[in-house]
Amino acid sequence: MADADNREGPKPPAAPREKGSQAVPAEPGRPVLPAKPGMTPEAEAAVAAAAAASGKPVAPGSPASGTTGVAGEPRPVYARITPAAPGTIPAPLKPSPAPAEDPRADEIALSRRMFLGLVPWSTLGWAAFTGASAAGTVLTARFMFPNVLYEPPATVKVGVREDYPDGFVEERFKDTHGLWVVRSGGRIFALVTICTHLGCTPNWLQNEGKFKCPCHGSGFRMSGIHFEGPAPRPLERAAIRLLDDGQMLVDKARRFLFEKGQWDDPESYVVV
Ligand code: FES
To answer: What pLDDT, on the 0 to 100 scale, is given for residue 27?
Structure first.
C-alpha cells in the first residue's frame, strides 16, 4: 500500500482546513456559495477569498446554477459554521431600562426639605405643648361640673282648696315633683309617687280608682293604702299646709308613714 502511494509520486499538500467556525477554501473550479447568516467574520473572509480565487462571483442567496445534484458537476463548497468553542465569553446582556422616575419627585423632596427647614423644631414643640395644655384646661373645666342630677325643689305650691273636688287626683306634679295631690274624705293630702315595693312609679287609673304599679302589679287605693301585689306598706305622704294667701304648700322633704300612725298628724293634710 505504501509502495503504491510512493509510486504515484508525492501528493500535493492538502488544502488547509480550519477548525471551529473557519471556512474551508474552495478548490479551483468549484463554485462558492455565499456566506450564511451566523458566520464568523473569518469564515466570511474565507468565503470571499475562495470566491476571488475561483474567479466566479458568489451567487446572491443561492448556490451557483448547476452546481448541485448533477452527476459530474463540481460540488459546491459551503462555508461551515460550528458553535463557538467552549470557554468563549458570551456577549454581555443589555441592561434592562431603568424604571421611569416620577418627574415630580425632585419637587416633592424639595418641598419637604423646605418645610422642615422653614419650621423649626422648637415651634413644633411649642405647638404640641400648647395643644396639650388646652386639652388639660378643657378637662379640668369639665371636672368642675360633674354629672349631677339636680332634684326639683322640695316645696311646691299646689293651688287652692277649691281646685280640688272630692275624689279628685291631681297629676300635674307627678313628673315635676313626684307628687299626687288628692282630695278624699274631707282632706287634701299629698302622696309620694314611689312604690313601696322596689321604687317604681305607679300610674293612677281613674276608671278603677286606684294606683297601679307597672313593675310587679302592686295596687294602692286613692288613700295610698296598699291592697294587692307585693308592696309591703302604703304609699308615703308629704307634709302639706295652707298658706296665708290661700295656696297650699307641699314639702316633700317631710314624710308621714301610715304604719307609724303619722297620717293623723295635722301637718300631713289640709281640711276642706
Ligand atoms: Fe311596685 Fe314592685 S315596684 S310592685
So the answer is: 52
- Ligand 1 first shell, C-beta below 6 A: 195, 197-200, 213, 215-218, 229-231
Please name the residue whose Cα sits nearest to atom 3 of ligand 1.
198
**Structural domains of the chain, count:** 2
Residue 129 lies in a domain: no
pTM over 0.90: no
* Ligand 1 atom, smallest distance to 230 CA: 4
Range(s) of the domain holding residue 38: 18-74
CA distances (Å), origin 197, targets 189, 222, 252: 21, 17, 19
What is the number of helices (H) and of strands (E) in the chain? Answer: 5, 11
Residue to probe by mutation, ligand 1, list 197, 210, 212, most atoms within 8 Å of CB: 197
Pocket test for ligand 1, best of 194, 203, 204, 218 (most atoms within 8 A of CB): 218
Decide if 124 is inside a domain: no
Q: What is the CATH number of the domain that holds 233?
A: 2.102.10.10
111-141 per-position pLDDT tens digit: 777 666 666 778 888 999 999 999 999 998 8
Question: Is 125 within a domain?
Answer: no
How many other C-beta atoms can be found within 10 angstroms of the C-beta atom of residue 23?
A: 25
Asked whether residue 66 carries a pLDDT value surpassing 70, the answer given is: no
Grid cell, residue 215, equals 313593675
